[in-house]
Amino acid sequence: MRKVVGELAKAISKTLGFEENYIENAFNMKSGFDVMAMNLYPPNSRSKGRVGLPEHTDPGFVITLTQDVNGGLQILSHKGKWINSYIPHHGILIQLGDHLEVLTNGKYKSHIHRVIVDNNKVQRVSVVSLHGPSLDKVIGPGEEFVDDEHPKKYHGTTYKASLEANGCDLIDVQSSLADLRIPKV
Ligand SMILES: O=C(O)CCC(=O)C(=O)O
Ligand SMILES: [Fe+2]
């Protein structure tokens, strides 16, 4: 998976118009830290609209997700609509993380997502890996993304601080990204 993430770092650096090592250097990805979480959603046949995991974003550069059966994960569109995700069998969903949003000063967005356990007939398991910068590097908006027309939108933070702020309690997921936003003046 690290190899895939390395290739994504190169490709995303290029889509931003930089040389391919831009993200690897900005995040010190050679010492990058990964966190893996497994989620288990039991079958539930009487729960119209019930939330299995509240809406949140995830810290890190990118997040990879695999699952055994499809269903439940929803992503909030820029128009404010919840879109059901479809991940092909053996497919890997790639989501963008909070630290990419911070580095690019909001140019790339960390997706808001949640899990609905609406009438789940069978148990679902998902495996989520957060691929992050090195733990102690302070990540703030890159100077390439900041100018008079684009003032800094985020405070800098370390990946470690974000992981700690998000906590380990998967029932009550918090997103620390909101705390990093600098209010508009
Ligand atoms: O189970 C899912 O589909 C999503 C899980 C998730 O968003 C997370 O663990 O951060
Ligand atoms: Fe998540």
Automatic annotation (TrEMBL):
Keyword Metal-binding tagged: yes
Pfam families linked: 2OG-FeII_Oxy (PF03171)
Domain Fe2OG dioxygenase: 32-133
Record-linked Gene3D superfamilies: B-lactam Antibiotic, Isopenicillin N Synthase, Chain (2.60.120.330)
Domain of life: Eukaryota
UniProt keyword list: Iron, Metal-binding, Vitamin C
InterPro entries reported in the protein's UniProt record: IPNS-like_FE2OG_OXY, IPNS-like_sf, Oxoglu/Fe-dep_dioxygenase_dom, Plant_2OG-oxidoreductases
Protein name, per record: Fe2OG dioxygenase domain-containing protein
Organism: Stylosanthes scabra
